[in-house]
Predict the 3D structure of the following.
Amino acid sequence: MKILDRYIIRNILITFIFITLFLQIISVIIDITQRMHRLEENKGSIKNALIYYYPFWSLWLSNTFSPISLFLSIIFFTSSLTKHSEMKALLTNGISFQRITIPYLFSAFIIGTISLIVNYFFLPKANEMKNKFHYQYLLNSTYKNQYDNNKTICTQVSKNGYLFIRNFSRKKNRGKDFVYQELNGRKLIYLLKAKNVIWFNKNLILYDYVENNTNHNYHSFSKGNYTIKKLPFTHEELLPEEYIAETMTIFKLKKFIDREKKKGSSHLNTYLNEYYQRTSLPISNFIFTILGLSISSKIKKGENDHHTFIGLLLAFFYLFFIEMFKVYSNKGILPSIASVILPNMIFMIITLLIYCNKNLY
């Protein structure tokens, strides 16, 4: 790696870190002022929010908008090179524009790889902590009451297994009239019933239960005051919040989606959007790197503000397209994979047109 490459990569990464931190500080300040009354209503405090919510919220925000932060970093850094005639000096000395692009792409690779790893493995835990605080202290009273109200669970949990629970409380992890049954075709081969149930993680404590097994030539019957059973899933997976996909690592999310497909979940596209977006967002770092370089390398003296405005406008449209296609996907109008790919495809075409038709000086 040559001195030029190290110089470009170092300055891009430093600018990226500075812009990311600056945007996080501003975002936290604005968010606190908007949510202060909600914290007070739910007996929370700013101190607890700064410890248990905003560090995880900031990680989510910075990683989600890392392509935009990188885009702005490229514009600011390259604009500085162009403004001080450093870009012109490089080209005049026989260094091609394509050669200058290489360290830019390497910078995108570093940031994209880190973003991909964070998306796959670390961000889910941060989202779990963030959502836990959010549901406890930042929900409005109407939605919080809906969340806390007892639910009826009636779902298919496996190819032949069905589960029913009445009046299940998320807060107490308790329910009534528990029924689990397995079918072989139309024939009932296993039945487990209980008047009351406590569900802790993947363990069920059943009270006043009856168990009947008539599988093949084997038959057994038992009943008692209580018994403990283990299931391969938690009640959060059967009563998932809309954002439960955010809290799963990429491998757990894949298994969860496969199970939701079998159940015919109405939120399936939401989960698929999350699954595909974890890869597509880091990839978009490359697109925005080339786009930022192509725009800012055209800058002449006195045009810095003009091109910065264009960059911000394009970043806004990218976010707009992501949200628009996501809404269409959640409503079932558009396949999930298409809703994630289309924004990148649109901006990749724009980027290639600008890059191939650049007019530097």
Observations:
- The chain has twelve helices and six strands.
- The chain has two domains: 3-141+266-356, 158-232.
- The first strand starts at residue 151 and ends at 156.
